[in-house]
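Before the break, one more example. Copy the sequence into your notebook; we will annotate it together after we see the structure.
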Amino acid sequence: MGKTAKITNKKQDWLALAIGNSRLHWAWFRGEVIQLAWDSQHLSGFRQNCQIPPEVLPPNQVSVNLSQLPLCIASVVPEQTLLWRNAALVQVITLSNIPLNNLYSNLGIDRALAVWGAGDTYGFPCLVVDAGTALTFTGVDGNHSLVGGAILPGLRLQFQALGQHTAALPEVELTSTLPLRWAVDTITAIESGIIYTVLAGIANFIVDWWQQFPNSSVVFTGGDAYYLYKNLPKFIPEMATKTKLEPHLLFWGMRLAYLQSNQSKIFKKN
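Here is what the structure looks like once it is written out:
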């Protein structure tokens, strides 16, 4: 997939693209430092000139031509990955590029990168709670070995499922405040049922993790991470000081993979 880029100095500009289930997540790096992060819609096709299409680039003006920078991709949507096959200077991250032990073959690359980034930043062992389209738990021990994890529908996906697959229930949007637990109307009852059950489930997973790894970091990331992170301490107060929020955690893992690849040349040419 394109030619392989090479960093020649620590100040080189490059782009990270995380292809998620719902959106494209972008970060413009200068060496190891993020200059700008943004999201865009999935592509329906690709330009013939092998440059990054302008519709996925940020609307504000930046100091460099982002469309021609080296591009590092991590994807959970194979069909979207294929659209970048004609792009110049592309590297695609695979599980073989991640120096963690016991990774199973179909582990999501986003989960592996996020927990690698968490461990490198905050120390191992660590647990990552990723609140995106899917809500995932991924834990790695002090020997950098995958302990395991879990996957369930994310908050917004649960709301959508009730609205789209029932005859009488409306589709409800996630609001910024906690609903009443004991609701007296249908919309609040949906909010209560989903939100309090998810919060209780997350708390249960974290408590179990801390029983195994008492000094472990727990890091929240993903689109709904802030909502969960700010509300969990209302039920378990110690989570306010023992958990962390990092919206760019996946990019920390991509940064490790990209910079490491340009030192050891471990990336495959696709």
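Confidence is low (pLDDT under 50) at residues 1-9, 265-270. The first helix runs from residue 78 to 82. Try to locate both features in your own notes.
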